[in-house]
Write a structure and sequence with these properties.
Elements lengths: L13 H5 L6 H17 L7 H12 L20 E2 L4 E3 L11 E4 L18 H4 L4 H4 L8 H27 L13
Helix pairs in contact: 2-6, 3-6
This protein binds iron/sulfur cluster.
Length: 182
């Protein structure tokens, strides 16, 4: 049986901030090392080989950040999340009772995803070395929960980036000149 790994748990609310989405610094370091070592051992560990290849393709074609879609692809023009009452929401992980109700299918032409900024507008993501892999975590996060999710996404995706560099050069990344540390 093949089991794929989507990524790490994002922080969506107060509960995940202190629960499944909470990682100490040492745990984040360990996550990076574990992903890197697993991919060195097996280039398709956890089904992540495809992401290494996508990273290479992004470099080869100089893919600009503006050309990236969110990793969930809910910002794609051909994707909408709809509940059984026809409410259109930011994504399937939100609900139609709060700010994430963006329209109704009865008013189809007016559907517009205006509850999340593109990550090309986010200062942190623009200068982030793993943005081609991460694609800005979850698109509607902001403030402290975004920062917490960003830290876990960075740790996870840095393990993939390190493996990509290792397969290209045989070298181990020991540091990256950004606000993040490896
Ligand atoms: S790790 Fe953080 S800064 Fe980098 S792309 Fe992801 S969300 Fe943006």
């Amino acid at each position: 049986m093949f089991v794929g790994l989507e990524g790490v748990v994002n922080v969506y609310d107060a509960a995940t901030a202190i629960g499944t989405g909470r990682f100490e610094t040492a745990e984040l370091d360990s996550l990076t090392r574990s992903i890197f070592e697993a991919l060195v051992e097996d280039p398709n560990a956890f089904g992540l080989g495809e992401r290494i290849n996508e990273f290479y393709a992004a470099i080869q074609r100089r893919r600009p950040i503006e050309a990236l879609r969110q990793k969930c692809r809910m910002d794609s023009p051909d994707a909408i999340a709809v509940d059984l009452r026809g409410n259109v929401m930011t994504c399937q992980n939100t609900g139609a009772k709060g700010v994430h109700k963006i329209c109704h299918v009865a008013n189809f032409d007016a559907i517009a995803l205006d509850t999340a900024p593109h990550f090309a507008l986010r200062e942190e993501c623009v200068s982030c070395p793993v943005v081609q892999l991460c694609k800005r975590s979850c698109m509607f996060l902001a403030g402290e929960i975004f920062k917490q999710s960003c830290a876990t996404e960075f740790a996870f995706n840095m393990g993939i980036l390190m493996a990509a560099v290792w397969y290209l050069t045989g070298m181990v990344v020991v540091g990256v000149a950004t606000g993040h540390s490896v």
